[in-house]
Structure formats: C-alpha cells, structure tokens
Amino acid sequence: MARVEVLLPQWGMGMSEGVITAWLRGVGDEVTEDEALAEVEAEKVEETLESPAAGTIVEILVPEGETVEVRTPVAVIETAD
C-alpha cells in the first residue's frame, strides 16, 4: 500500500492560500481518482478539491474553516499499490 498526500492546489496565479469550507468525504471513505473530496474557498474562487488517487482516506489533516497555504497537505489517501 502507498500513501498519497492530498495537497491544496493553486487554481490561479494570485492564489496563495485557501479555506476548506466543507469536507465531502471522511476518514475511512473509499474514493476514486478525481472524486470530489472538499469544497475550498480562495481569494477569488470557490473550487472543489478532487482526489489525486483511488483509495481510502486515512487522515484529514486540516479541519473545516482553517486557512492553509497552497501545496499544504490537507489529507492522506492510502492506495492499493
């Protein structure tokens, strides 16, 4: 098994941080690649954070409402690989 960190992406050149406004999936949930994991609000955008891999969510590192910088790990997925 491998562990994949889910990083907060940068959706625009001016985006330096974002807020997880809602987790759509939780620890123990099976997810597919590109499945919606969370809603994120940044300075000028509201986006959906998608899973970078298929597997099981084993950790949520950032609670709802917390502001984090771009490329910060926000969750961990364990894959079958």
Sum this structure up briefly.
The chain has strands spanning 2-7, 17-23, 30-31, 36-42, 46-50, 55-60, 67-69, 73-79. With 81 residues, the chain is mostly beta strands.
Give a verbal description of the structure.
The protein is an all-beta fold and about 80 residues long. The protein is built from no helices and eight strands. It has strands at about 1-5, 15-25, 30, 35-40, 45-50, 55-60, 65-70, 75-80. A four-stranded antiparallel β-sheet has the order 1-8-6-3, with no helix packed on it. The chain has a four-stranded antiparallel β-sheet with strand order 5-4-2-7, with no helix packed on it. A hairpin with a 3-residue loop joins strand 4 (about 35-40) and strand 5 (about 45-50). The termini are close together. About 20% of the residues are buried.
Tell me the layout of helices and strands:
Elements: E1 2-7, E2 17-23, E3 30-31, E4 36-42, E5 46-50, E6 55-60, E7 67-69, E8 73-79
Antiparallel strand pairs: 1-8, 2-4, 2-7, 3-6, 4-5, 6-8
Distance between the termini: 5 Å
Helix proportion range: under 10%
Number of helices: 0
Shape: elongated
Provide mean pLDDT, rounded. Answer: 95
- How many whole angstroms does the radius of gyration measure? 12 Å
Uncertain regions spanning at least 5 consecutive residues:
none
What is the succession of H and E elements? EEEEEEEE
Instruction: Classify the secondary structure makeup into a structural class.
Output: mainly beta
Strand numbers in spatial order across the main sheet = 1-8-6-3
Number of strands: 8
Major sheet characteristics? 4 strands, antiparallel
Proportion of residues in extended strands: over 45%
